[in-house]
Amino acid sequence: MITDISFRGSTLELTLEVNGISLTTNRSLERRHVEIGEEMCVLIYRAYILEEEDTTVYKNQMLKGVDVEAL
User: Interior CA angle at 22 toward 16 and 23, to 5°?
Assistant: First the structure.
């Protein structure tokens, strides 16, 4: 569910709650209008895990070779 929407100049920054976890993503202004409280399907392409001084990047291996922008 969308919990927050922020205008970032050329994109919107959406905050989503998925199973109690807060996710943040950018959304093109050219996509359809969305509102706070709206349910969305979520496809995670890349996740950045921040722990104290370390950052780990996880990529969705099921999307290897897929044009994510076309989805």
Answer: 60
